[in-house]
Fold each of these.
Amino acid sequence: MQRRAWGVVLAMIVSAGIAGCGGGDSSSSAAEPSPSVWARPTGSPMTIEPVTTVDGAELFESDGLSVLVPDGWETRRSEQPEFVQIMVLRADDERNPVVLTILAQPGSADVVETTASVASAELAISGATDLEQHPATWSGWRYASGITGVFDQGRDGVVTDFVQVVALSGDGKVVGVTAQAPRGQLDDALSYQVLRSVRPVG
Amino acid sequence: MSEQVGCRRARRAEARSDEGAATIEYVGMIIAVAVLLVSVIGLFTPMGNDLNRALCGAVGKVVGDSSCAGAGAGAGEDTAGSDLPEKAPPKGPYTTHSDETKIDAGLSISFVDIGGGIVAATEGLSNGTYKVTFVDKARVGVSLSAGEMKAKLKVGDYGGSLGASASFSKAFEGAYAVEYTLNSAQEVADLKEWAAREYGKDVVKTVGGPLNGLNVELISWLVDKIDGYDYKPPEPSAIFAEGSVVIGGKAMAGGILAGGNVEVSGSKGLGARLEPNGNITVYTKTTLDAKVASDLGLVKFTNGSVGTEVVISVTVDKNHDITEVGLSGAATAEGSYNLFMLTGTPSVGSGGKGIGINATFPVTDANRADTIAALARLGVANTVGGTAVSQAAAVPWIMDQARTNGDVSAQTYDVAADNIVNAALGLKAPALGGVGMELDASRTSKTSTGAWYLGRNNTWVEW
């Protein structure tokens, strides 16, 4: 009993000594993702296979991310206090861009899941159907969560399949990437390849 | 025989002596390590009195100083009526009283905004229960990581203690408020004391850095052992996602819904409430523009507000189905006429007090499509932008749904605040104070002086 207690004291003294050498950095270190149990996705696991080349595409870098921009596509960047958005789109198809949303505040796996949950609620409120949240794996990212669904754009009867991935980079950046394509065509769509090419830089 | 008895007595006496010695040694250890900790922390900060106050939060109970703990619970008052009304009262209780107590102990160290800190909002409800919501205005927990501490060290049953103590910081990751539902004033007091102790520890840990955080946890664990403090907080009944997360989620969804052209701002996305059962309620502030206000006969809605503002809440369940929609508005006594005009309800004599009106209705397959259309008209859904004409049609539609399928209630408030809209809506969901609606903790004492619900004949029935 007493031996264990003194062991505790020894551990405290040792760790205090380590702290004394460690400086006063109060910032959060890179903790392992530990998603909140309330926001865990229930859909089937999703794997996003990274794409490193697309014929004729050029690498575009901005805000700590890189993305392949296919020939004939362009990028548009906008900024708000809470986030930066980069749209990668074909000039003649403004309705279906690949959209990168980068949150201003650094986050964690919990923030990723909470953000994904809010995004899925927003999609439901706006009438998206067949919504599912998936635990996702995306090489190059520390943590990821996916959302899939169907959305009726209400214009000329256009109905799209969409995928949205919210991911955490190694330096704590929370990024959402979306892509959509006419029903049944998403897997082979160029927009999905663009989504898969998004990577953190550095 | 007598020799054996004599030996047992001797062993018991020796054991008692050991126990006493062990206790003294424990106290000695605490003092020694506390001194060590103070000296180590002293290397980093010129804190002086700040440190004393911080440690007070962690060990206040041991030294008999209760000044660090939050104030006691507000008293609830059951005012539910006993007459049989035309229609059953709304299923949920209403707030009879609330108070807010800052528990940042006046600390002014680097990561805490001056005037910020954690606010404990306590609501006494009409059914005798209480709701305590800790609102972290400075998002203290984000700067700490429970995970990093968990991975470092485990001594004795220290891990069990860590699980509970770490939850305060943990719960704030990605959230700015945590809500607990409690059954008695004593439970409220116990929870507040725990929060004060945890916050005190968090402060010291952050000042000294992550590794010193371990020391604080260990000291606190030992102190708790001696003190016999073994309180474990209940599971939260909800958390509120912080505004930037909500806005980010809205923006990401906008990438699908509006081709990235969605307009999202902090003044619109107030927050989101997440429950353990997977329900998410998203709160959005909607401003009815001047033309709509004019069309609806509204002249002046609130003091200090240019437009006419209401908060729309939409609850989505774990299957991503919309299950409930709510509309909340509030006005000063002066603006109450306009609020009643907006909601199409008869007026309540507010006696010169501020008034809030809440309307909710369930969403089913029968009204889901129309609900989404109405939300779009109000700019809550992203599918189409709201227009003046459609806005004017949407509010009466929502009120009609609430009147026929849901509940409409009204409360008058004594609110010591200039902006009664923020204060009264804050009563409905205190954690909405994060973005767009500043919850000022210095404005305390919000007491409901009357509560009604709308009966079948469109007349108010005392609740």
Amino acid sequence: MNDILLEVKDLHASVMEREILRGINLTVRRGEVHAIMGPNGAGKSTLSGVLAGKPGYTVTGGDALFDGESLLTLTPEERSWRGVFLGFQYPTEIPGVSNTQMLKSAVAAHRRAQNLPELSSKEFIKLMDSKLTLVKMDRSFLSRGVNVGFSGGEKKRNEIFQMAMLSPQLAILDETDSGLDVDALRIVGEGVNSLRSHDNVFIVITHYQRLLDYIVPDVIHVLYNGQIILTGDRSLALEIEARGYDWIINQHNGK
Amino acid sequence: MANREVILLRGDELRTLEITVGAGQARELVFVALPGESGVIDCSVSVSFSGEGGDCVLSGLYLAGGSSRVNFTVNVEHGVPRCSSSQLFKGIVAGRARTGFFGLIRVPEHCIGTEAYQQNHNLLLGDDCHAQSLPQLEIYADDVRCSHGATFGRLGDEELFYMRSRGIPEFEARRLQMTAFASEVLEGLPEDIVCQALEALESLL
């Protein structure tokens, strides 16, 4: 087992011929929580999309190694089986497919990939019940279409619920705090904290430092114009909260 | 609850149905068209009413792949006031298949209080298939409630990526979405027909 779970090396990626990521370097060790902050358009969502294998991005250079293996040639489902999870900024609604149906397929595929026997219905329901408690969601969520008619807060809690069901090694949470009120923020934070271990890794992408009150990061990176221009500890988030990004950008531009 | 009749069309079928709905009567018909690889299904349904208060609910699912052909022609003649009808036809079209839905609702001048709805939705898989839809309303009466609509869509990329990012293999994510599309018509049908439909659906993947 590698101590380094994720190593992103000089990663370049573009969308429709426009370069968005311009050489990202990032090393994340097991047990760490990293926060990626940055102004709009910096490339935060592109980075999470590229790591999860979202179609529409072209990687033009560099690599992303997960436990020593390149992620970039793997399909999204293969990445999921290896232990990568993306919490969506805007979780997709899937009418007609229930939460239970989707998770049943997902858990079954994960277990197949790990050569584990299929869970019995009873075991599966028990697993769902235990994870629902984490995010304080009601059982009635399970039979509804995936995210259909969910409020913003419910959608984000559903992301954390799915994450808990799949127990990933690397969870990338893309602006999970956007659209959340304080109560939902606390529930999401507590959900994440209860899943933290010395083996797994969280990358929390956020605009604001308020989520970081609940999920305390070890390392904070500032992403700007497709590059990480500053890395610091938790105090950096507080400074950004107080002073914005301009001073960092100016420093980077040598002004 | 209307007495529901399920009409399964498999392989090559040429079917003509004439339905007369009596006063205060309710009829419900569900069509499931499974032409297989190269079948040709042509189904014409004519509905008329012989007394007020009649209600006719038609729904249908066609799963056409390979080089198959499916045509549904539905004529609903609202010749009596205060009757209602609805049509919901859904199709998944793949391969080089061709499908057509031709629906006509006619409401003559004196037939007030008519309610008539018509929906046709198509899910197209691939670039070589072809689905045609011609929903028509001919309304000469005031004080009626009628609507019609047709859509053509593809499997959503966003939905597919969302499910794949949870570890669901692509073919299964597609199957889940297709089943969700078909379930509106299949819900509540006898198990053996649902099984045959799901088998046909799987063959379109």
Amino acid sequence: MKKATIQLEALTCPSCIQKIEGAIKALEGVDKESTDVLFNSSKVILNFDDEKITINDIENAITKMGYEVKKSRVKDK
Amino acid sequence: MQRFILKRKNHITLISAILIVIGFIAKLGFKNETAATLPLAIASLLGLAPIAIQAYQALLVKVVSIDVLVTIAVIGAFLIKNLEESAIVTFLFLFGSFLEQRTLSKTRSAIKELTEMAPESALKQVENGEFEEVDVDEVDVGDILLVKTGAKVPVDGTVLKGEGHINEASITGEAAAVGKKKGSKVYAGTILENGTIQIIADRVGEDTTFGKIIELVEKAQDSKSEAERFIDKFSKYYTPVVLVLSAVVWIFSRNTELAITMLVLGCPGALVIGVPVSNVAGIGNGARHGVLLKGSEVIHDFSRTDTIVFDKTGTLTVGKPKVVDMQIYAQNSDEVLAYLASVEGESDHPLAKAIVEHIGNIKLYSVEKTDVIKGGGVVARVNGHRVAVGNVFLMEQENVQLSEKALSDIQRFENVGSSLVLTAIDGQLKALVGIRDQIRPKVAENLKKLKKLGVKSLVVLSGDNQKAVDLAAQELGLTKAYGGMLPKDKSEYIEKLKDEGKIVAFVGDGVNDSPSLALAQIGIAMGNGTDVAIETSDVVLMNSEFDRLPHALGLAKATARNMRQNIIIAVGVVLVLLASVLFGEWMNMSIGMLVHEASILAVIINGMRLLRYRLKY
């Protein structure tokens, strides 16, 4: 398991949290319980299984929803 | 293509505004309905494009978002050929989100300022001894770094070489620069105002004090209280329910106008962001003023505090004892003082330091055969005399006779709450010194402010003798004062207050009172933002200035109030809109959207007021 912190462009719309959460939780290999979309700091924090999914896949899923990923950091758990 | 459209949302908003104006001029100015149709139709379609894309993306991940509802509503309006409404609704929705973006970044600005103070690069020594600029993430513990004038210290470390003055305001809140030389500790995020130093990295990244502060604030701004989690759940179901409801309305009444108007009201936007904007603005204001609040739950509890308990040492007092009285029982006072200063000069005890400082420049003798008597004082040989320095107990042990006069002096000193240091030379009492800790400047004034803010009782718990504590309590107007308390007694007392149903805030320095800090509903650490304090407490006052405490309490109250106002605005607006859609005649899609967007802006602007919050008295 790895822990990722993804910095997004500033989140401003009330419903974007739900959308990003939906997009990430739909991915195979992401620990749904750990997923947290932080509105004010505009960050996503989640744990994922690096044998099933890569950080790039997760970033792509967010970008596809129309939100820019600025920087992400992955750490061992 | 999708991204192209989303990126140009602001342009689209502008163009559709122009088209709407043209359409209305054609219709109202020239009474030409047909000429109005085209620009309004284009405005509707253009405005719908980004919204529909967002709706589609949301549906892909099974989220019924406001975009979905607006898209359906606009298509509906288009179908019943109500182009004015469809154009205006899309425009208002886009323009609303543009304004949200602008205003939200304001509410977050205070915290952003703080996080942007984090150092980004460092000059690291590489193998050939030269210094090379690297990203701060690449610095490891043990690396040697160069810090030049004007640069930020990149990590927590120790000075190896060089001297300089550092502005530590980001850590301690003190504006005055601190001198640093070899062996001094330096902290990440502080600024070297002059000089050049080389340091060795002791702690890097998130482990530094500054890193911890940032982490705390970042977490705090998004922390959620019980009430917020409930709102989140509510809003998750509210939107789909509205969708179903309007479908039901349409099926039964066949009234498309009514059904699509309902859709527009389907997102409780103000409810979702109302509390978070208050939270981020309140915490941001705190961060600017050296007050770290650990999230909305803390703000909520703190705002209801009715009892504040102080750990006296270091919170109400300066923590630096001073000599306040001195009585000499000898002809040659210089000699007595010289012996006393010589003996005390060897000690690190706070009372000894106070005495040495008070006596100042004097001829010193060499001190031999120093014997430290535990719980008593020191006995030593100075210039051929046996000198005993300590408390009354030590004097008894040394068989020193205390005269009538000395006993009354001792009584007098104790009555004003002083600690006593007696000096005997060759078994004769020669000097009596009274030492007291000083009350911090402006404490009394600030305690009054706390009472004005609604705190019912102010209690001090102290390890000092009861007389000293009573005296301070009287001087400061405290409700209750207990002396002779051990750390264990303090936490028991807090437990008791909690059992009585009090909401207790405990103010300590975070060093030896962590059990009490953790036990009280609100633990407030005051002082220099030490690591322990940051971890165990709920509120950290970065600066040892006492006036941060009333500001912190006032801010917590204002923030809690602001959150309640925002919830009332949001819920009120939803209720009014729903009621008027069902029972009123005047409601239509455009007005619905206008009110909806206005309510979102209202909660943001209301939250923004917190950034300027200041205690009024």
